[in-house]
Write a structure and sequence with these properties.
The complex is a heterodimer of chains A (105) and B (324). Chain A is α+β, with helices and mostly antiparallel strands and 105 residues long. Chain A contains 4 helices and 3 strands. The longest helix of chain A has 25 residues. In chain B, helix 5 runs antiparallel to helix 6, helix 6 runs antiparallel to helix 8 and helix 11 packs antiparallel against helix 12. Chain B is built from 12 helices and 2 strands, in the order H-H-H-H-H-E-E-H-H-H-H-H-H-H. The chains are: A alpha+beta (105), B mainly alpha (324).
C-alpha cells in the first residue's frame, strides 16, 4: 500500500489552517517553509508559493515586498477576512477532531 | 549565476498572466535564501534540481486548467499565432486584390471607383475567409498538441510507475540545468514557423501568379520542376538536420549557431542563384510573357530573405553568448 500518498492527501486538508496559523504576523515564503518544516510539516516549494498566491488573490492574505537580511523578500500576512476564515477553520478543525477522536477511541 | 538566470528565464517562459515578474522575483529570492553566502556553482545546481524542471515549477503556478481544450499555458501562444495569421491574411489578401488596379491589356494602372470598391471588398472578404479558416486549423493543431502532451504524461506514468510513486521522476522530468530546453513549447514554435513559411511562400506565389507567370505551370510541369529539384532536396535535408538538432538537443549550443548560420547562408545563396540564373528556369512553352516587374518581385523576396537570415543568425549568436 502506498502510505505516502494517503498521508499527503490527509495533510493537504490541514495545510491551509497550519499556514494561516503561522501568518498571524508577516512572514516571507522561505521563513514560512522553515517554520513548517520545524513543526513537522514539510511542504514542497512548488505547493507553498502557488498556494500563498492563490490565497492572496482570494484576499485571504495580503503581501508586501520588504528588505530582510540584505535581500528583498515578499512578506505575507492575514487580512481581516483571512483572520475570520482562520477562526472558522480552527473551530471546524476542533469539531472534526472531536468526531474523529470519538471514532478512533 | 548564469544557471540561475537561465533557469528563471525558462520558468518565466512557461508562465502566463500578469504576475510573471513578481513570481520570478519571489522564486529568485527563495533560491538565494537556500544558498550560503559562499555557495559555489554545484550548490546552486543542487538547489535548482531540487526545485524541479522549470516547466513543472511554472505549471504549479498555472492553476485552473481543468477541462480546457487549450490550456492557459498554450493559450497565449494560440492568441499570438492568431494575431500573426490575421496580419499575414491581411497582407496576402491586399496583395492578391491589387490586381484590380492593373489593366493587363495596356499594362497600366487604373484607380477608378469600381476598381477601388472591388479592391476593398475583395480584401475584406478574403481576410475574413482567411481568418476564419486560420482559427479552425489552428484550433485543431492546438487540440492535438494538448492531446499529445497529456498522452505523453500518461505514457510516462505507465512506463515508469516505480519512479512515479515517490520521486516524481518521469521521462519528461529528466532534464538538465546545463542544457535547458522545452520540447513542449518547441512544438508550438515549430507550428508557428511552419505556418509562417507556408504563408510567406503564399505571398511569393501570389506575386508570381498575378504577373502572368502561372504558378501551377511551374509546379505541375515536370520538366520545370526538374530544374530546381536539387535545390529543394538540399534545402529539405538542411532544414531537417537543423530542426532535428534543435528538437532533440536544443538551440543554446555552438553547434546550433553554426548549423543555423549554414542554413541561412544556403537560403541566401539559393535565392541569389535563382535570381541570377532565373532565365535558366524559363521554358518557352511555359512562360507566356514576362515583364520587368518579375525582377522586382524577385529582388523584393531576396531582400526579405536576407533580412530574415541576418536576424536569425544574429538571434542565435545573441542567445548563445547571453546564456554562455
Amino acid at each position: 500500500m502506498d502510505l505516502d500518498k494517503h498521508i499527503i492527501a490527509q495533510r493537504r486538508g490541514s495545510i491551509m489552517v497550519v499556514v494561516l496559523s503561522f501568518l498571524q504576523t508577516p512572514k516571507y515564503g522561505y521563513e514560512l517553509a522553515k517554520l513548517l518544516e520545524d513543526s513537522g510539516y514539510v511542504v514542497d516549494t512548488n505547493t507553498l508559493y502557488p498556494m500563498l498566491r492563490r490565497l492572496e488573490k482570494e484576499k485571504i492574505l495580503s503581501s508586501e515586498w520588504n528588505e530582510s537580511n540584505n535581500r528583498t523578500q515578499k512578506y505575507y500576512v492575514l487580512t481581516k477576512e483571512g483572520f475570520e476564515l482562520w477562526e472558522f477553520l480552527c473551530n471546524e478543525w476542533k469539531r472534526t477532531n472531536n468526531i474523529i477522536e470519538g471514532l478512533i477511541k | 549565476m548564469k544557471y540561475l538566470d537561465r533557469y528563471l528565464e525558462d520558468v518565466k517562459y512557461h508562465l502566463y498572466g500578469k504576475d510573471k515578474n513578481d513570481i520570478i522575483k519571489e522564486l529568485k529570492s527563495d533560491i538565494l535564501n537556500r544558498l550560503d553566502d559562499n555557495h559555489n556553482e554545484e550548490d546552486l545546481i543542487k538547489v535548482l534540481e531540487d526545485l524541479g524542471a522549470p516547466w513543472e515549477v511554472a505549471s504549479s503556478y498555472n492553476f485552473d486548467n481543468e477541462g480546457l481544450t487549450i490550456t492557459k499555458e498554450n493559450f497565449n501562444n494560440y492568441i499570438k499565432l492568431l494575431k500573426l495569421l490575421f496580419i499575414i491574411g491581411l497582407i496576402t489578401s491586399s496583395v492578391a486584390a491589387l490586381d484590380n488596379f492593373v489593366d493587363y491589356s495596356r499594362f497600366s494602372l487604373s484607380f477608378d471607383f469600381a476598381s477601388v470598391l472591388t479592391f476593398i471588398l475583395e480584401m475584406f472578404f478574403n481576410t475574413f475567409n482567411f481568418t476564419v479558416t486560420s482559427i479552425g486549423i489552428l484550433t485543431i493543431i492546438f487540440y492535438f498538441i494538448e492531446k499529445y502532451d497529456k498522452q505523453a504524461k500518461e505514457y510516462n506514468k505507465y512506463i515508469f510507475p516505480f519512479l512515479n510513486s515517490s520521486t516524481k521522476v518521469t521521462k519528461e522530468n529528466k532534464w538538465s540545468i546545463k542544457n535547458l530546453k522545452s520540447k513542449r513549447y518547441n512544438l508550438v514554435d515549430y507550428v508557428a514557423e511552419s505556418l509562417c513559411i507556408i504563408f510567406f511562400t503564399g505571398i511569393f506565389l501570389v506575386f508570381l501568379d498575378r504577373q502572368i507567370w502561372p504558378v501551377e505551370y511551374q509546379f505541375f510541369h515536370i520538366e520545370y520542376l526538374n530544374l530546381f529539384i536539387g535545390l529543394v532536396i538540399l534545402s529539405i535535408i538542411i532544414e531537417l538536420v537543423v530542426y532535428s538538432y534543435r528538437f532533440f538537443i536544443g538551440e543554446n549550443t555552438l553547434i546550433y549557431v553554426v548549423l543555423n548560420f549554414i542554413r541561412n547562408c544556403y537560403g541566401i545563396w539559393a535565392s541569389a542563384y535563382i535570381i541570377l540564373y532565373k532565365e535558366m528556369f524559363y521554358l518557352p512553352e511555359v512562360v507566356i510573357e514576362t515583364s520587368t516587374l518579375n525582377n522586382n518581385v524577385f529582388y523584393l523576396v531576396f531582400l526579405i530573405n536576407v533580412i530574415i537570415a541576418i536576424s536569425s543568425i544574429s538571434m542565435s549568436i545573441y542567445r548563445y553568448i547571453k546564456l554562455k
